[in-house]
Every structure is written in structure tokens, then in C-alpha cells.
Structure prediction request, 258 residues.
Amino acid sequence: MRVITWNVNSFNVRASQVERLLLEKSPDILLLQETKKERIDPNLFKSQGYVIYHAGGKGRNGVAIITKEPLTEVRVGFQGFDEEDPQARERIIGGRWRDIFVFSIYVPNGSPVDSDYFYYKIQFIFKLREYLERYFDPQDKVLLGGDFNVAPDPIDVYAPVLLDGQVCFHERERKALKYLLDWGLYDALRVIHPNSKGLYTWWDYQFSAFKRNLGMRLDHIFITEPLRKIIKSVEIDLKTRALPKPSDHAPLIVDFWD
DNA sequence: ATGACTGGAGTTTCCAGA
Prediction:
């Protein structure tokens, strides 16, 4: 089984790159973030053998799950848990794929540090844990993929001293993310590459950041123990980030033994 | 030189992204 997560930074602009990814990598599940669309035709990639589940809004946010096999129990936002959250319906979509519950998640950016929006980001991550606590057990097969907008550790950013305290690498964000993982989640990339440096999924469009590998690891696939045991390989798809008109994020690919 | 990039909304400039 192959799962890919990718922040596309506009589905409209990246639609042909999404199609290319489906054809070249043939994922069973593709999780997208920042579609920046209100609606996507569920059958857009029908001829490639895929169906699209999407939850979005006008111009911002937007998450999707693209699968070969249909999902059941599709959930949008903090359904049944916090219906009031103003943005969650554009930031979380989940559903059951075989015996695995998969989510595509776009955590708020939270800039600037210490703003109301920063605390909304921290709260959003806390709420994710409470949501998992309510509906799942760490022994269930659960996969959370997406743009979490937090680099977990110093080896996940190009300049840990310079970036310390800045958005996406602030101590409070990292503690919140750790609290989420402490429920019973493993960071798929670190299961396979526990100490590798320079592995990033986001690079600024400016400063020739990609060419110089000045990046951060903000996109993650988090899994529970039963899935950790069957991880086969993890790869960051730099080739897609190097295409003309790229997203500022690269796809993260995780393969599991069948 | 304190800049630099991209996308969307909806106007010709602003906001958000990270």
C-alpha cells in the first residue's frame, strides 16, 4: 500500500502535476492540502481510476483524499466533536479505507507568533488529540497525513538557532505536536530515517531556497503502532518540487508492506 | 539596496502563506 501527502498550494494551478503524480507513483491514497477551491469534481480523475473526496472553501485552505477504492464513513472537520470551529471544515477530511482510518489535515499556519491566530493553531493541534482520544484507540489502524506546519526537531530545519521561536519552529508549537504524537502516533519518516539531516518538505519560493536546500520538514505522515510495524519505505519526492511552476511543498511518499 | 516568490480575490493592490 502506498500513501502520499502533498500540499499543492492551489489545485487549479497544480492539477496537471496531481495527475502526473497519480500516473507515475500510483498511490492507493493521495492526501492533498491547500486546494484553495470550494468544489472539485469527484470524478475528475475517473479515467485514471481515482475518486476525489474534497472539503474546501473559497480561495483558501481545502483538503482532499484521492483514492482508487472508495472510502466509507467520510468525516469533515471535527465532526460530532466541535462543529463550531470556523475553519476545521476546510482543514480536516477523513474516511475509512479498508481497515485503516485516514485523514488529510491542514494545520493553520499561525503567523505571526503570539497572535490570536497563533493560539488558534496550538488549540487546533490540541483538539486533534482530543478528537483521536474520543473516536479511536492507539491500537486501531489510524493514519494522519498532511501539512502540520510544525517542524518537530532541530534536525528538521535548515537553521535551528536562527529559526528558534519563529512560526513553524516555536517551542510551543513543537510541544503541542509532541502532545499529539504522545497519544500513540509515530512519525513515519523518522521510523525509517531516525537521524538523517537535510530532509525537508517545504522550501520558500524566495532566495533560491530549494536549490540551496534551505527548507523545513512541515509535512508528515503519522501512524499508530499497527501501521508502524508494516512500514516499508519513506521518500520525499524532490522531482515534483523541481518541476516548473511547483508548489512550495514536496510530496511525502510512504510505502507499507501489504 | 533590508529587496527577493506565489496564488486568490477582485480590482490595478492587498492579504496570506511559512
